[in-house]
Structure formats: C-alpha cells, structure tokens
Recover the amino acids of this structure.
C-alpha cells in the first residue's frame, strides 16, 4: 500500500474512532491488508516515521493527535487485550497523595494477565499480575473517560501494594487512614 493512502486511513481511524495504538492484527482491518503485504506496508510506515513500534507487536500512529497521557494505557490494552488491567500501586497512590514520590516516566499497572516491564519512548509500563477475581476488582476501580484504563481507588491501590510487598515504606499512613475514616 502506498504511504499516502495508509496515512489517510490511519488519520481517518483516529478521527472517527480515536484509534492510534494498534496490534498488527488491528492494522490489518484498518489498512485492508494481511500477511506479507501488511508486513511490508508496516515496515515501510515505520521506516518513514508514520508508525512507530512501541513494543513487540504494538504500533503507534506517530501523527496522532491523541498521543498523551492515555498512550501508555492504550499500549497496555493492546498488550493484554483479554485481561483486566488498571493503573494502581505507586502511580495511583501518588495521585491520591498517599505517597509523596511522583513516579517520573513510569506507570504501574495491575493486570490479570502476565506481568512484565516494557520500555517505550512514552514511558515505562510496569505490569504486575493479580489473581483476584473480577468480582473483587471491578467494584474497586475508578473509571476515567477518553478510553483511559480505570485506576484503583485509594484503598484498593494500597491493598494492591501490600499484596506485592513493595515500597510500603513510602506510604503516608495518616493520609491513607484519614480517607478511610471519612468513608
């Protein structure tokens, strides 16, 4: 496929559906190609800077207007499409003001899928596995707009952190308990 035609299709997919992060199979639907032709087109688009390989098997449309805070969330959704994933641990506890350190260039997520760490130009994705059932996870999530992954409530993020056993020394227990007393 010619680059100009691919660029138009990718821009249209973002405009109409908000899509700018893709698995290779998703690109097949947008570009109307599969197999070797899709691989050649994708290689050409990456070489031209139109697409960027974020991590293995996940690509970002470089000219997307939507690139920003939700980009890492969209990459996580592509990495773990059949799992429940949510922002939690240090990232969320920092947002809730329970830990004073602000993670820079790293977002921590919990997932019912495999754990792993993925270094992208958009930041580091830190996925930690959770074996909790959906019935325990979903009621403790705070939904966000714009296609963002949900984030853990303050107490659920703390429970997630306790379950991992990491960085508990960073938690301001007064701040955590103050919120708990309010509810």
């Amino acid at each position: 496929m010619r680059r100009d035609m691919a660029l138009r299709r990718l821009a249209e997919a973002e405009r109409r559906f908000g899509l700018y992060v893709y698995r290779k199979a998703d690109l097949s639907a947008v570009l109307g190609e599969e197999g070797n032709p899709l691989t050649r087109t994708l290689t050409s688009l990456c070489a031209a800077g139109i697409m960027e390989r974020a991590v293995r098997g996940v690509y970002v449309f470089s000219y997307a207007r939507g690139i920003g805070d939700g980009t890492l969330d969209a990459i996580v959704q592509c990495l773990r499409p059949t799992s429940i994933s949510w922002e939690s641990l240090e990232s969320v506890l920092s947002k809730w003001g329970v830990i004073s350190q602000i993670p820079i260039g790293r977002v921590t997520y919990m997932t019912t899928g495999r754990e792993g760490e993925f270094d992208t130009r958009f930041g580091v994705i830190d996925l930690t596995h959770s074996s909790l059932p959906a019935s325990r996870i979903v009621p403790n999530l705070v939904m966000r707009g714009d296609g963002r992954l949900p984030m853990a409530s303050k107490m659920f993020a703390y429970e997630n952190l306790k379950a991992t056993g990491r960085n508990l020394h960073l938690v301001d227990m007064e701040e955590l308990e103050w919120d708990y007393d309010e509810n």
